[in-house]
Amino acid sequence: MALAEAAATKHPYLQRKFQVGSANSDKVNYSLAQKFFHNKDVKPEVLEAKKAVVKKKQANILGTEPRDWNASTIADPRVQKDATVDLKRQLLMVRAGLKDEKVMKPSRFHTDEAIAERYKFIVSVTGQGPIGKLSGKWTNTVDERGLAKHCVADHWPDWNQSHSCHTKEDAKEAQGVFEKKESRRKKWAKKSQSLTQMEYVNPSQAVTNVNDCLRERKIDFQDLKEQFKRELKVEFPQASEERLQAMAQRLLNEKLLADEKMARFPVQHESFRPNLSLTTQDRRYKEYSHPGTFSWMESERRYGWSCCLNFDQDSRGCECKVVNPDSWCLQGFERM
Fold first, then answer.
1. Is 321 helix (H, G, I), strand (E, B) or coil?
2. CA end-to-end distance (rounded Å), the chain
3. CA–CA gap between residue 251 and residue 35 (Å, rounded)
């Protein structure tokens, strides 16, 4: 009796679900009209979104569809005013055709002949024959050069511009270009006759020599630089290490420049140029004069010069000019 009851109540095992393309499926190929996806495979939210989109695409011009429930509780029209539709005016617009869907007409900007000519031009330039995706025809190009060598229309300009490098003319032109560049390379690689190899120093060696000189000078005057640094540390206790290094290096450079100047010019403010002012006779002199007049001044109640307000008639002039008696006279002779 117990065995019969156990056999009657079976355990609810999981059932195998049919999947398209699975190894458990006995069918591999399906026709285009056959639906092999089950309705339960699509999610509910996807179905609802699809229904909403399909309903949105159907325009409710006549207002026959039920309106959405307005959950607003505002009764004051000054705060919120519900949209009202004039049904009579809307029906008149539908009857006049103003609510119809707009259909885009095919453009007549380019004719079929112009489009065919453009196809032909593209194929001739690129050298690619079939343009089946555009026109479904096969256009036979002249050769791999395309339009550059052979024009397919008389009104198109003809120019010799090759797209290939396999013809005899192209090989000859390439050989000429190679020879020109090779001759230029040999000319620049050839050593000049006026160049002295014993005295020539290449740029890398020159830079190395300058760096060696700077390194030797730093090593030789390292003690003096440290002394400058100690003195600057006492004078500027809050200065950083980088600032002390820079100030010490600047003082060292100034001292070296001063030593080099003393070595070149032992006596200060003296040069070996002759002082011509001691040996050359110069008879130039200055003449002073007043550009104004010596007259009576009402404001001062006395006589004075109008230019400098000097009250002495025999005073030295307020302006001067240099007179050189040895200069050339270019004013000509006086008339008798």
1. strand
2. 175
3. 94
Count of beta carbons in the 10 Å neighbourhood of residue 36: 13
Ranges of each domain in the chain:
111-172, 285-322
> Which one, of 263, 274, 222, 273, lies nearest residue 245 by Cα?
222
> Which two three-digit tokens encode residue 289?
């004069």
Nearest to 323 by CA among 289, 287, 292, 295: 287
Q: Are 137 and 143 in contact (CB under 8 A)?
A: no
CA 36 vs CA 42, 71, 132: distances in Å:
12, 42, 35
CA-based diameter of the chain, in Å?
Answer: 175
Paired sense of beta strands 319-323 and 285-289, if any: antiparallel
The three-class DSSP label of residue 80 is coil
What residue spans of the chain are helical by DSSP H?
2-8, 44-57, 87-96, 112-126, 168-189, 203-220, 222-235, 241-264, 276-279
Question: For residue 60, is pLDDT > 90?
Answer: no
Mean pLDDT of the chain: 77
290-336, pLDDT tens digit by residue? Answer: 999 999 988 888 999 988 888 888 888 899 999 988 888 777 665 54
Q: Is the pLDDT of residue 153 over 50?
A: yes
Distance, in Å, from the CA atom of 17 to the CA atom of 247, rounded to the nearest integer, reads 87
What integer pLDDT is reported at residue 143 of this predicted model?
A: 44
Predicted confidence band of residue 261 (pLDDT cuts 50, 70, 90): confident
Q: Which of 69, 64, 65 is nearest to 82 (CA)?
A: 69
**pTM of the model as a whole:** 0.26
Q: Which residue has the tokens 């560049």?
A: 181
Residue 327 DSSP code: S
Please give the structure tokens belonging to residue 250.
């600047």
